[in-house]
Amino acid sequence: MTFCKTLAAAAAALCASAAGAASVTAYGIVDTYVAVYNNGDKTSVFEGSGAKAGSRYGFKGTEELGNGTSAFFQLENGFYSDSGTNTGGPGSWAFQRLAVLGLKNDTWGTLSAGRQYSLNFTQIAKFDPFGVTMGSVIGNYMAPVSFASRPGISGMAGADNFIRRDNSIQYSTPSLGGFTLTVQASLGEQTAGDGEASSTLGNSYAVQGVYRNGPLAAGLTVSMQNMSVLYNQYNRRADNVTANAGVSYDFGITKLYGNFIYKHGDGNREYKDAATPYNPNLYIGAIQAKTPLFGGSLNTGAAYLKNDSASQADSWNVQVRYDYPLSRRTTVYAGAGYLSNEDKAQYDIGPGGGGTASPATAAGGDDVWIAYVGLNVTF
Predict the structure, then answer these.
(1) What predicted TM-score, i.e. pTM, was given to this entire model?
(2) Which of 14, 209, 213, 322 is 20 to 30 A off residue 183, Cα-Cα?
(3) Residue 139 DSSP symbol
């Protein structure tokens, strides 16, 4: 009898200890595809990683602190499934995709810090059925590297800096009648021209409002990054300002998405000997749809990019991708796309961040196309 009481007390103590312990989950995605791609000059076949979703592994956890408050963290790194290498390259980040630590309260909202997604990127992803992956008509205009023939939404900072913000602090309210407000600031931690640390260079600031009510969702995000002095080819400020409005409505038979983006660079100033402005003002409009079909989903979209700082530098593209779940964790997908460039534009079709880059478009004014099939497994 005494032994039973002792065993019961030990079990109760173990359960109490487990209830207070953090819950930690390991997770990941492995995504591989094969594509046929024409870069405007020749057609090639290649194997890539991360078309439907960037291949990754990570750890996330929460601990209940009581009174509706919990602590949480998420650490995530990307890799290329076709080569096994890190997406950041040799000697780069340990957790290139995410490194976030925060507190969440049911009444007061969520506060987080670290390397986390920018608000402009999360806004685009919320109103993109492709999730800014292969097939996203918006994603093709992110521009991995901003240069004169292919300036993108990311502006002078480059796509990685636009998608994620280092040294960022973010606060989100709880849902207030379907409306959520989020603010984010990230510290550039740059060095000024005199060699001293600067409290403003490279800093970015953003605010986002999203409303959801049944089948309707709408959002608006505005961000600014202080780029002054970071690029010594300029002798005055070159801040990036981006505004993004999105809306979606689920009609049942299909869900429609609309997105409008304005990226304000530095207008007509040219970079070195470039034929067009290095950091122009851009307008991007997109309409996309996600339609249930034969047990899977058909994603379609079309977008137009207007370069407001140069002539003959516009572009448009159309995309389609079909995703079919073989199980709860395994999806097979196939898609195709076509992108048209004016004479001074040189955009291409590619996957989202962490995916294998497509062959570079041969020359300005070339049109490109792609057809691909792939497999995505989550764990």
Answers:
(1) 0.87
(2) 213
(3) G
Read off the pLDDT of residues 75-131 as tens digits, 9 standing for 90 and up.
999 999 999 988 876 556 789 899 999 999 999 999 999 999 999 999 999 999 999
Report pLDDT for 259: 97
How far apart (Å, rounded) are the C-alpha atoms in residues 104 and 14? 26
- The partner residues of 103 in beta bridges, in order of sequence, read 71, 111
Region label for 87, one of left (φ > 0), alpha (ψ between -120 and 50) or beta (otherwise): alpha
Tokens of 42: 């020749």
Task: Using CB atoms within 10 Å of the CB of residue 257, give its burial: 0 to 12 exposed, 13 to 18 middle, 19+ buried.
Answer: buried
Q: Which residue has the tokens 């989950």?
A: 25
**221 token code pair:** 């995000």
Query: Which run of H or of E encompasses 211?
Result: strand 204-213
Query: Quick check: 261 and 242 in contact, CB under 8 A?
Result: yes
Q: What are the helix (H) ranges across the chain?
A: 2-20, 119-126, 159-163
The number of C-alpha atoms within 13 Å of 331 and in the hemisphere containing its C-beta is 22
Q: Which neighbouring-strand residues pair with 332?
A: 324, 375
Dihedral angle at the C-alpha atoms of 210, 171, 72, 101, nearest 10 degrees?
Answer: 130
Q: Tell me if 265 sits within 8 A of 242, measured CB to CB.
A: no
d(CA 254, CA 299): 10
| Measured distance CA(376)–CA(332) in Å, rounded | 6
Q: How far apart are CA 118 and CA 97, in angstroms?
A: 12
Token pair listed for 161: 């800096």
Tell me the torsion sign for CA atoms 85, 161, 182, 66: positive
Query: H helices then E strands: how many in the chain?
Result: 3, 17
